[in-house]
Amino acid sequence: MAGVLTRDTRYWEVAKQLTAGHPPPEAIELIFERIPGHARERGFRASPYMYAAA
Fold first, then answer.
1. Cα separation of 41 and 6, whole Å?
2. Is the C or the N end of the chain the one with fewer CB within 10 Å?
């Protein structure tokens, strides 16, 4: 569970930096545009929430 909380904090920090100063519709689009690149990063292990639920 600690891993989920650590990743959650990191994801929120990245999202806040990425969307700062953008109106909500544009901010959501920016987040979704970033997801495929994140999924290709070395060490990506899918959703931490899915693992926590399993």
1. 17
2. C
Contacts with 30 (C-beta within 8 Å, 6 or more apart), sequence order: 18, 19, 22
pTM of the model: 0.59
Dig out the tokens for 43 from the structure: 């060490």
Dihedral sign, CA of 40, 41, 42, 44? negative
The residue whose two tokens read 């990506």 is: 44
Whole-number Å distance between alpha carbons of 51 and 2: 12
Are the CB atoms for 22 and 30 separated by under 8 Å? Answer: yes
